[in-house]
Specification:
By secondary structure, this protein is mainly alpha-helical. It has nine helices and no strands. Helix 4 runs parallel beside helix 7, helix 5 packs antiparallel against helix 7 and helix 7 packs across helix 8. It starts with 5 loop residues before the first helix and ends with a helix.
Amino acid sequence: MPKSTTLPSAERGMRQRAVADARRALVLDAARAAFFELGLERASVREIARRAGYTAGAIYSYFASKEEMYGALLGESLERLNDAVAAARPAAARRGEPAEAAVLRSAANAFFGFYRENPRDLDLGFYLFQGLQPRGLTPELNDQLNARLRAALAPAQRALAQLGLGERDALAEVTALFAHTVGLLLLSHTGRIRMFHQESQGLFDRYLDALVERALGRAKGAAR
């Protein structure tokens, strides 16, 4: 009776997938280096292929365009951002503040801390942050990336709502929180913040204090 070939076939398939995944990762590493050094507009598929040790034609078996590579890199970055926010655990609430305030501080600090510690991820995200859509980044992929960014901000928005803000006010505040975060980090990573003899974390902490106070004040006002 002939032996089954199912297992060897499955093993071959697993090896082929592992090889393909390794080559895809190599291409993404080369793309990341090219984007950071040359910028998205100047980095060509040919240059990325050269850095990866492949021909340009071989690259297209993994990615249809350099914008698709960018989308994959940004998608991975946003997943790590979401993981960092999800892993954050709030400290004990400050005296006189509800527990939701500690949740807000924790979620906001996790978002801020991820980009403070990973400036390259901030650089990578600027196309998304600024609303630019490079040629070849499909509307579907752009929507997916935006959804992952919003998901990382959602815990802070929920905390604001739980503090008593209405949906509209909570959205406005989390939008301002995001803008403040990006602006502070841009000043910090470019060294411009030294003009003012300040440091980003201290300024961010002050902003969070003001945000919590503002949220609690609005909630109290609405309850009267």
